[in-house]
Design goal:
Elements: E1 45-48, E2 53-54, E3 60-62, E4 66-70, E5 73-77, E6 79-83, E7 88-98, E8 103-112, E9 115-125, E10 130-140, E11 144-153, E12 162-172, E13 177-187, E14 190-201, E15 209-210, E16 214-218, E17 222-226, E18 229-234, E19 237-246, E20 250-260, E21 264-273, E22 283-293, E23 298-307, H1 312-316, E24 327-337, E25 341-352, E26 365-377, E27 384-396, E28 402-414, E29 416-418, E30 421-437, E31 448-460, E32 462-466, E33 472-485, H2 505-508, E34 523-536, E35 542-555, E36 574-583, E37 586-595, E38 600-613, E39 616-625, E40 629-639, E41 644-653, E42 658-669, E43 673-683, E44 690-700, H3 709-717
Antiparallel strand pairs: 1-4, 2-3, 3-6, 4-5, 5-7, 6-7, 7-8, 8-9, 9-10, 10-11, 11-12, 12-13, 13-14, 15-18, 16-17, 16-44, 17-19, 18-19, 19-20, 20-21, 21-22, 22-23, 23-24, 24-25, 25-26, 26-27, 27-28, 28-30, 29-30, 30-31, 31-33, 32-33, 33-34, 34-35, 35-36, 36-37, 37-38, 38-39, 39-40, 40-41, ...
């Protein structure tokens, strides 16, 4: 911004357009030409009231008011005095200055080149918005405000629910940064925070500063107070430090550092509680994630997490999910990928948190895993593709069986595709070789296995118009896959990383019913299924999707994992899934795995959601796994008035006849502050012990505007709920 003596030339095509005429001109009245008191190169327009006088030195007095404008800047006052020698303007009575960034009002003021001072000032920052008052206010032409004995708030005129009072405040309107010294934060007149120094954002821009504290309590950790501080280190770096004091444990210091460069992105987060008064030990957590792009198409990926003890998440995760974390992965991967080749090396191990797991059920360490996968298309008319999948892994596992596993699978196939069909015959040869240690005496230290895999996969897609005016399209997509793998006795092979995944549409059309290659299931079967979809012809929005599939055995598979019941019957379980979307704010998804042989449900899931907008949602869910779990999950986030919003969730186990987790809370939101409170009761340990907690958070808009922890918790706990914030 600029003042007389600091105005720049060239801001108007005609700098004197609209200037009043000289007093010796006919009909001029008492107006004076303000261009006489400014340098000839200055660009301005303005007017002074009648009865104005000018002495021989060029000083002007205008007791009946003055208005000066420069572009979108304007100054008005009832009394005006200009000293040409000092280039100083003194004004009194209803002084007002305005530009797009600030509006000033005061009793008196003085203006010199590059600076303005207003006494008894009130100010508004319309672009933020924010307002305040001060005993004195100094404003530079760079847009920096210096205020003394000041009060600041983002509440509208006539509603000062909260305010920041300070001996002095500096506000940089260009950088949207404010700093205050000897600051007191008052909420409805009650002091809630006092700091010798505070930095705060003026607007929505990201900046360093104190985020508002959160207060809570739990039955295991006592009352807890978290006071986060956000460091905006650079446009592509930031750090959030969150000291949290637990009355039953002590002081925990948490932090999250994020960075982004031209070649990498990642984050480092962790916690340190030096002396937990409840356990007598230091408690800590460290998590590192980074992806770095290297020259020539190589990539380095690090993903690792570690905690000080097996009960860390049970004590500090504050949710039922913490009690179910059994392993923490650590992975370092160097990889290369192009259109045809994917290769690399992986180092991976796990921290086991569930100490009740038998040693044989704990994951192996892989140091290293070398892999290479390739796929090429024959460059001629025949749609022939060929490739390979190979790896060499050394598995370590304490005193259990460990050693090398080598696997190579060359493959070749044809791919016929067109509008409405595909047909893909393929042949592969799976060759696996082990070099083992730690086996029982007399066991084969070098078992091996070679298996051919033959498959024929094909599908069709039929499509037709639907609806009275053809506004929808409906598809029918049948698919068949024949798979043949001869039987080989694999009981002498170890099990390093192999398990039986949940049956779904993707698994139904894979060449192996196991994840991992320690077991390759024999097969002489036909997988059959179909998908039908209903979607909008104009927008492509999908309304309905239905999938049904099953595998039919010409010979029942005989290969199995240790302790896996032998398969019987001539077909796999039937799987079915239905999804209804975008129908008058309703969404429904359901899935079923049905055992035809024993006429019973193996797994079932249903999710019903009503969501008219992102922050208003009601969910009803049901999950069932035979002999394992049966749960009902109800959650909601719903506004009851323009200012009040309720939250809640109940996760109940029908199998155990008890609640796993439930919470309820509310949020009151005004134009300039939010208050959120949540009470929870949940299973916090594998043993079934419970924890009860209460969480309270006050947000004063304009003092803390980086995403709130409570928002992140609610988005995780209530399916579909979103605030649109960026969370820390």
């Amino acid at each position: 911004m600029a003042f007389p003596g600091a105005l720049r030339a060239g801001e108007f095509a005609n700098p004197y357009e609209g200037v009043p005429r000289c007093p010796d001109d006919p009909g001029a009245g008492a107006a004076l030409p303000l261009h006489r008191i400014l340098a000839p190169e200055d660009a301005f327009e303005g007017a002074v009231g009648p009865d104005s006088t000018q002495d021989r030195e060029g000083n002007i007095e205008a007791p009946n008011g003055v208005t000066v404008r420069q572009g979108d800047r304007q100054l008005t006052a009832q009394q005006f005095n200009f000293n040409e020698a000092e280039r100083r303007i003194d004004v009194r009575g209803k002084v007002q200055y305005s530009d797009p960034q600030i509006i000033l009002r005061g009793d008196a003021g003085s203006f010199v080149p590059g600076e303005a001072t207003v006494e008894g000032a009130n100010f508004e920052l319309p672009m933020q918005p924010a307002r305040g008052s001060a005993r004195s206010l100094t404003l530079s032409n760079t847009g920096v405000l210096q205020l003394k004995d000041v009060h600041y708030t983002t509440c509208p005129e006539g509603s000062t629910d909260w305010q920041l009072s300070a001996d002095s405040i500096s506000i940089d309107t260009n950088r949207s940064v404010g700093t205050a010294r000897d600051a007191r934060v008052e909420f409805f007149g009650v002091p809630i925070l006092r700091l010798p120094y505070i930095s705060f954002p003026v607007g929505s821009a990201r900046k360093s500063g104190l985020l508002f504290p959160s207060l809570g309590s739990s039955s295991t950790s006592g009352v807890q107070l978290a006071v986060p501080y956000y460091f905006n280190i650079a446009p592509a770096q930031d750090l959030t430090l969150t000291p949290t004091y637990y009355t039953s444990r002590g002081l925990d210091v948490g932090g999250e550092y994020r960075f982004l460069t031209r070649s990498s992105r990642g984050e480092i987060s962790g916690n340190l509680l030096p002396d937990d008064r409840k356990t007598g030990h230091t408690r800590s957590r460290l998590k590192v994630g980074d992806t770095t792009m290297l020259p020539r198409g190589w990539r380095l990926t690090l993903d690792a997490e570690n905690v000080s003890d097996a009960r860390y998440f049970e004590d500090f995760a504050q949710g039922a999910d913490g009690a179910s974390i059994a392993f923490l992965p650590r992975r370092l991967q160097l990889s290369y990928r192009d259109d045809n080749l994917d290769t690399g090396i992986i180092l991976r191990n796990f921290q086991t948190l569930d100490q009740d797991l038998p040693q044989t059920d704990r994951p192996h360490t892989e140091v290293p895993r070398l892999y290479a996968r390739g796929n090429w298309l024959l460059p001629d008319a025949l749609p022939l593709n060929y490739g390979f999948d190979t790896e060499a892994v050394f598995f370590r596992h304490g005193n259990d069986v460990h050693g090398w596993r080598f696997d190579a699978t060359p493959q070749v196939g044809l791919s016929y595709e067109g509008a409405g069909y595909f047909l893909k015959p393929a042949v592969a040869l799976e060759t696996t070789y082990y070099q083992l240690q730690g086996q029982a005496p007399g066991s084969d230290r070098s078992p091996n296995r070679t298996l051919p895999i033959i498959s024929l996969d094909g599908g069709l897609q039929f499509e037709r118009d639907s609806g009275r005016h053809g506004q929808r399209r409906m598809t029918l997509e049948p698919r068949l896959m024949y798979l043949y793998v001869p039987y080989r006795d694999q009981s002498q092979l170890p099990v390093f990383d192999t398990a039986q995944p949940d049956l779904n549409w993707i698994e139904l059309f894979r060449s192996n019913r196991y994840s991992g290659i320690d077991r390759i299931s024999d097969a002489n079967q036909l997988s059959a299924g179909f998908t039908t979809r209903l979607y909008s012809s104009s927008t492509g929005t999908r309304f309905l999707s239905t999938t049904v599939g099953q595998a039919f055995y010409f010979r029942t598979p005989r290969v199995g994992l240790p302790d896996e019941p032998a398969l019987t019957g001539h077909a796999s379980d039937l799987i079915a899934q239905v999804e209804l979307q975008a129908f008058k704010n309703w969404n429904v998804s359901s899935g079923l795995q049905w055992d035809e042989q024993d006429s019973r449900t193996e797994k079932a899931e249903m999710q019903l959601r009503y969501q008219p907008e992102a922050r208003s949602v009601v969910n009803l869910g049901y999950r069932y796994q035979r002999e394992r779990l049966e749960q009902v999950d109800v959650s909601a986030a719903w506004p009851v008035t323009d200012h009040w919003r309720l939250y809640g969730r109940s996760l109940y186990s029908l199998r155990d006849s008890k609640s796993i987790e439930y919470f309820g809370g509310f949020e009151y939101s005004s134009c300039c502050w939010n208050l959120r409170a949540i009470a929870r009761d949940y299973v916090s340990r594998r043993s079934g012990e419970r924890d009860r907690s209460f969480y309270l958070q006050l947000e004063l808009k304009g003092l803390s505007n980086v995403g709130l922890a409570a928002d992140a918790f609610l988005e995780k706990a209530i399916r579909g709920y979103s605030t649109g914030r960026q969370h820390r």
